[in-house]
Amino acid sequence: MRTLLLTVLLAGIALADAAPASPVLVVPIRDEIGPATVSFVKRSLAQARHDKVSFLLFEVNTPGGRVDSALDIANLIDQCGIPSAAWVRAGDFGGAQSAGALISLSTGMIVMETAATIGSAHPVDSSGVLASEKVVSWVSATFRAWAEKRGVSPLLAMGMVDTDLEIYEIELGGVRKLVDGDEHARTKEIAAADFKVLREVKAKGKLLNLTASEALALGFSRATVASREAALAAVQAPAGPAAEMSVSWSEHFVAFITQGMISGLLISLGFIFIWTEMKAPGVGAPALLAAACFGLVFFGHYLAGLAQATEILLFVLGAGLLVVEAFTPGFGVAGISGIFLIGASLVLSLQNFVVPGNAYQWNSLAGNFLLLTSAMGGAIVGFMVLLRFLPQTPMFHRLVLEEQVRAAETPAAATLVGRTGVALTPLRPGGKAEVDGMTVDVVAESDFVDAGTAVTILRVDGPSVFVRRA
Predict the structure, then answer these.
(1) What interhelical angle do 285-303 and 249-257 show, nearest 10?
(2) Are 428 and 372 in contact (CB under 8 A)?
(3) Which of 232, 386, 425, 448 could form a disulfide with 237 if both were Cys (CB 3.0 to 4.6 A apart)?
(4) What is the dihedral of CA 238, 239, 241, 242, to 10 degrees?
């Protein structure tokens, strides 16, 4: 009797462990597609495997986003081994646009909300300009491959990407089919008696964007439904309650930081603070602010799976070389090498590849390089503005323990002009000099001046004392 009870108990425990609390997991794909979306989908699929979920429903409502991120998500869905479907919802963005269409294609089947649309996937570069023909061709082939894999019309998928493609629905010998412009012309010529054009699905020069009714009529979607329950029924999902994933605070953080504009702004500020520190070594505050800016960039991209230990190590080495340069006269190998390593680490942290392997990755590399150079250009402009007002801003002055004499506070400030002194610190361009036994805040007029160099006071402009080499 005891053995029987133990057997029943163990069997019950095993069944309880094997049966998921919810057989269906709903994964919302909302807002812009990017590295944060990839992280969210990875976590969702890990949760699905842990909970032994038997079906995944992706609720898609997005304006699109990065094609590489969409392709990563498509591969994750394909390789997870769990049956799935996409329910395209109207929502704030009207349906599954651009990269959202690719994600929807990668699932087992598509159902759509009544007012939703799907398509319009012409790739653009980081500045919003239409991508090159090579990139369009690669993305179009990617859409075609996923359509063939999922058993929907490759022409419809390609028409969402390629503006040059024409698509017609024809009837030939009583059979309906979709053809491109070339096949339409050939068929019309050789089989005029049995040939009938039912409609022009896509005109040349336009992108294909299907409504729910059009997608259903053309076989691109399985059904048009108004609720999640109806969507699950249409795709024959297992009966039972459906659990839903939600985006975590860290994924919201990643989505914010990995935006091109935010990353570029942080990089630009980071460079401004680095150069500020190099002009007046030892201040400390600019160096901490630079570390905070670059730390946010790397931390956000690390959470997104883009920045790895290699990129962070390259950045640390580059920063170390700049520290060496800050305390070395002139600007030489250490400084140039440091800037190169920092630039390389930042570009690599913005992408999920090292060497481009296709046209889209080459396009992404060019976009990331443009982002970096734009950020550096913004930093140069910002630093020039700071340089104009830096000497008049006390918060940027170096803090020292000895008593200081400021020209603006000295009644005989004008009498300093023409006197000669010695630079107590490197002038990059701000620093300190000793003039007639007094410590004076000074600014080098042109090139940097090393500590111990004789300087001549040129003029006094408000609180600023300008000097040059004697």
Answers:
(1) 110
(2) no
(3) 232
(4) 30
Tally of domains in the chain: 3
Domain enclosing residue 452, as ranges: 400-469
Q: Are 416 and 435 in contact (CB under 8 A)?
A: yes
Residues 236 and 361 occupy one common structural domain: no
**Torsion 389-392-396-398 (CA) sign:** positive
Range 273-276, long-range pairs (CB < 8 A, 24+ positions)? 274/319, 274/322, 275/379, 275/383, 276/383, 276/386, 276/390, 276/396
User: Residue 431 corresponds to which amino acid?
Assistant: G
Q: Rounded distance, CA 153 to CA 324, Å?
A: 61
Q: What is the mean pLDDT of residues 79-103?
A: 94
Pair 27, 63 in one domain: yes
For residue 404, give both structure tokens: 């200081």
Q: Could you tell me the CA-to-CA distances from 140 to 106, 135, 204, 285, 401 in Å, in that order? A: 14, 8, 15, 50, 67
Residues 297 and 416 in one domain: no
Which pLDDT belongs to residue 91? 85
What confidence score (pLDDT) does residue 451 get?
Answer: 86
pTM assigned to the model: 0.74
Average pLDDT over residues 80-106: 94
The pLDDT value given to residue 21? 66
C-alpha Rg value of the chain to the nearest Å: 32
Q: What b/e string do you get for 113-145 counting C-beta neighbours within 10 Å, with b at 16 or more?
A: beebbbbbbbbeebeeeebbeebbebbbbbbbe
Structure confidence at residue 76 (pLDDT): 96
Say if residues 98 and 32 touch (Cβ distance below 8 Å).
no
pLDDT, tens digit, for every residue of 192-233?
667 788 899 999 999 999 999 999 999 999 999 999 999 999
- The structure tokens listed for 86 are 């996409």
pLDDT at 80 over 90: yes
Q: For residues 86 and 6, state if they share a domain.
A: yes
The per-residue pLDDT for range 415-426, each reduced to its tens digit, is 778 888 898 888
| Alpha carbon distance 392, 280 (integer Å) | 15
> Is 216 part of a structural domain of the chain?
yes
| CATH number of the structural domain spanning residue 6 | 3.90.226.10
Per cent of the chain over pLDDT 70 is: 85
